[in-house]
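Quick one: co-fold with NAP.
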Amino acid sequence: MTDRYAVIGHPISHSKSPQIHAAFAQATGQDLSYTAIEAPLDGFAATVQAFRHEGGRGANVTLPFKMQACELATHPSEAARLAGAANALKFEGERVYAENFDGIGLVNDIQRNLGHALQGKRVLLLGAGGATRGALLPIAQQGPAVLAVVNRTADKAHALGRDFAAHAMLQTGGYDDLEGETFDVVINATSAGLAGEALPLPAGLFASGALAYDMVYGKGLPPFLRQAQAAGVTALADGVGMLVEQAAEAFLWWRGVRPATREVIARLSVPLV
Ligand code: NAP
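Sure, here it is.
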């Protein structure tokens, strides 16, 4: 029988996950279906329950339900608990397992696909929302020399520093604290670019040979990457690889088979111009 999976969010029509998982299933010969389900804003748990009763084996979860996904799990992973959010669920009998693969997807994209090792590097995350929460542990596990988080609301960055104290020594602050600092990898995990807004980045922020990575994808050259390019950075990447790599981790978790990602990333990529 064909195994059923889905991505649940609101809205959901924009989601590329059905396309990505269909490509993975075809390439690996796995017999599964993967659909997109829009849950009512006040009906996430009921939607998950109904999907399980219909035989659903697992689901991806996207905005605005990632926190609720972690809460309803009976067995959340350490990564999901630390992030306070999950983007993948697996159903086994009465058990609901939850994982957060956004961070490992980001790390795999940066290191494997883009060829920028994080070990020993000075790494900066811009933003202190859910995406940064999900990314911190997997990045810290690579052994960067410095892992810094700055946020428009500096207190939220400081709170992250406290929450992750047992796992990583974070440098935290606001954009003013970036004056005089230089980083090898700068990751934009804010949603500023979605509103077309640039970030208050000081001159000299990017080290020679730095990578500028924007988690936003499919928007051409977003404002942050434009800023990096103007500062002389040539290694620019948007978040399409992160999206496909987190999907590959979920596929492996559900099916026990790791799909190849490069071709799918290439197919979904929009030129950075
Ligand atoms: P979130 O929890 O809503 O956090 C948004 C963050 O952006 C906050 O730190 C917020 O700062 C900051 N921000 C918003 N507008 C800003 C502005 N004008 N100037 C400076 N900072 C601003 O969102 P999220 O879930 O972390 O997602 C962040 C981004 O990552 C989104 O664009 C999302 O699409 C993307 N993302 C991509 C992937 C992928 O697979 N590629 C996965 C997850 C997320 P304050 O705290 O001060 O409000």
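If it helps, The chain has a mean pLDDT of 97.
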